[in-house]
């Protein structure tokens, strides 16, 4: 799974997290799958999101992990009756995550993961593939010379 339980501890205290899981009516795996599915729905047309979700540990995009965690925590707390309000930090962070996903999907900002048009193996990191960013890229057939 792209997000593991320890990823949530930077956003919520372990005791609060465990208490919310005990109060909730679903498993953390189901919530995380739902959050990943939401993110995938926003990013699949522009980015290689399945390849990103296949990554583990330090290879993952840290900001995307935080976005998935924010969405998962919102889903978790929204399943507990009377728990969320408009001023709640979970609602605020969820709304910020959705705004970020909408901007990324519209192409206004980048997600920091390889797009569908990037080289398959290297992605968009100029340090790994500096030739990809060198000058103008174009290709054509050699000039034909016709003699009549």
Structural Rg: 21 Å
SSE order, as H and E? HHHHH
Number of DSSP helical runs: 5
Note poorly predicted spans.
none
> Percent of residues in beta strands?
under 5%
The percent of residues in helical segments reads: 40-55%
Overall number of structural domains: 1
- Tell me the major beta sheet: none
Q: Topology, please?
A:
Elements: H1 14-23, H2 28-43, H3 49-53, H4 62-78, H5 89-106
Helix pairs in contact: 2-4, 4-5
Can you describe what's shown?
It contains 5 helices and no strands. It has 148 residues and is mostly helical. The chain has one domain. Helix 2 packs across helix 4 and helix 4 (62-78) packs across helix 5 (89-106). The radius of gyration is 21 Å and the shape is elongated. The termini are far apart.
Task: Give the gist of this structure.
The protein is mostly helical. It has helices at residues 14-23, 28-43, 49-53, 62-78, 89-106.
List keywords for this structure.
148 residues; mainly alpha; 5 helices; 45% helix; elongated
